[in-house]
From TrEMBL:
This is Glutamate-1-semialdehyde 2,1-aminomutase. CDD domains: OAT_like (cd00610). InterPro entries: 4pyrrol_synth_GluAld_NH2Trfase (IPR004639), Aminotrans_3 (IPR005814), Aminotrans_3_PPA_site (IPR049704), PyrdxlP-dep_Trfase (IPR015424), PyrdxlP-dep_Trfase_major (IPR015421), PyrdxlP-dep_Trfase_small (IPR015422). Homodimer. It comes from Clostridium kluyveri. NCBIfam families: hemL (TIGR00713), PRK00062.1 (NF000818). GO terms for cellular component: cytoplasm.
């Protein structure tokens, strides 16, 4: 079997055989399929198996795999422009497109990943406010920057580790952890440390402890506290941006953050990230201001072209988001019905084209503590079953399941049929 052969050999040269931990399928536990190609809603592994893809490269492939416009943009640009490390018109085009289509972004800085976007946004907030502390929420994941690796979500949560080795205590002494969807907790932190809090960083729709939408009063309360204490509000929309709506979660909640971080979808599947927001804040960045942040590859022409093709297509086809809601609702209702019929305890959380199925007997999953109570053993069996049925979802209870524009009612029916045959494993 080529899948296993390639993965076994990969382990000789890459730690765990992978370049990002959760890909190793450690907690499900299986050898991962080795993916050879993707087309539309489908991916194919080296053994020739076909899967309907609900991972979508952990979010970016919202147009489906190898979308024609994105492929053409990459081909066309790469004929003449691979990398210059210099100013190009295509970086202006994408920056202008984002600033003119998203009200809360007046200026933007391109980087190469979500991690780079969030760590740079926090540095900018610290430089702007001349304060040190940040508030982050348990279960939210903002990438692998040291300051964020405390009670983080995503792979850190999947592996059940409180943080990461190699992070000096000094790096996290200015990180204060609060409970997601608990405004009182944040109020108390501000009472104690308010004058030294540079920023709150939050996923407005959390996707890294499974999907947990922020409650409107909680998020509005964060905005109010930041105004009161002159701290900055950073919305990490690396996952939710261009996904729950073209204009991100902030447009659904009607909240204006000071800084927004983006990545994933905005690079059309190529490595990218960005942070943007109020002009007076962004102008603190070097070379205009004193906050230094740089990157050889930042604003890479091919990435910019893929991102622009993706964002234009999403923005010009608002029916995509209407369809996400329609298919998402069908999935959500279908799974809920199956869970009732078969008496399997589940909670389904969904926001547009991202959702999670939590195996828990609680009636609600609203924070990290609730998510941690989920039965990961049942999830592992569920995952194995879904994969056998040709449905590819993230190999962790604490990740999101994503829709893309190539998914149809037929794909949703197949997903539901697969869920419906799960009882054999319980
Ligand atoms: N922020 C959020 C909300 C994310 O979901 C992720 C990754 O999943 C990151 C930041 C880090 O992004 P990257 O993996 O591109 O560094």
């Amino acid at each position: 079997m080529r899948n296993d052969k390639i993965f076994e050999e990969s382990k000789l040269y890459m730690p765990g055989g992978v370049n990002s931990p959760v890909r190793a399928f450690k907690d499900v536990p299986l050898n991962p399929p080795v993916i050879k190609k993707g087309r539309g809603a489908y991916i194919y592994d080296e053994d020739g198996n076909e899967y309907i893809d609900f991972v979508c490269s952990w979010g970016p492939m919202i147009l489906g795999h190898c979308d024609e416009d994105v492929v053409n943009a990459i081909k066309y640009t790469s004929e003449n422009a691979i990398s210059f490390g210099a100013t190009t018109e295509i970086e202006l085009e994408l920056s202008k497109y984002i600033c003119t289509t998203l009200e809360n972004i007046e200026m933007i800085r391109m980087v190469n990943s979500g991690t780079e976007a969030t760590m740079s946004a926090v540095k900018l907030a610290r430089g702007y406010t001349k304060r040190n502390k940040i508030i982050k929420f348990a279960g939210c994941y903002h990438g692998h920057f040291d300051d964020f690796l405390v009670e983080a979500g995503s792979g850190v949560m999947t592996e059940g580790i409180p943080g990461s080795a190699g992070v000096p205590k000094d790096s996290i002494k200015n990180t204060i952890i609060a409970e997601y969807n608990n405004l009182e907790d944040v109020k108390n932190i501000f009472k104690k440390y308010g004058s030294d809090i540079a920023a709150i960083i939050v996923e407005p729709v959390a996707g890294n402890m499974g999907v947990i939408p922020g409650k409107i009063d909680f998020l509005k309360g964060l905005r109010k506290l930041c105004d009161e204490y002159k701290s900055l509000l950073i919305f990490d929309e690396v996952m939710s941006g261009f996904r729950v709506a073209y204009k991100g979660a902030q447009s659904l909640y009607g909240i204006k953050p000071d800084i927004t971080t983006m990545a994933k979808i905005m690079g059309g599947g190529l490595p990218c990230g960005a942070y943007g927001g109020r002009k007076d804040i962004m102008e603190k960045l070097s070379p205009l201001g004193p906050v230094y942040q740089a990157g050889t590859m930042s604003g890479n022409p091919i990435v910019m072209a893929a991102g622009l093709a993706t964002l234009k297509k999403l923005n010009e086809n608002s029916e995509y988001y209407v369809n996400f809601e329609k298919l998402g609702k069908k999935l959500e209702q279908g799974i809920r019905q199956i869970s009732e019929d078969k008496s399997i305890s589940m909670v389904i959380n969904r926001c547009g084209a991202m959702f999670s199925i939590f195996f828990t007997s609680d009636s609600e999953v609203k924070n990290y503590k609730d998510a941690r109570k989920c039965d990961t053993t049942i999830f592992a069996k569920f995952f194995q079953h879904m994969l056998e049925q040709g449905i590819y979802i993230a190999p962790s209870q604490f990740e999101a399941i994503f829709l893309n524009v190539k998914h149809t009612e037929e794909h949703i029916d197949k997903f539901l049929q697969a869920v419906n045959t799960f009882e054999a494993f319980i």
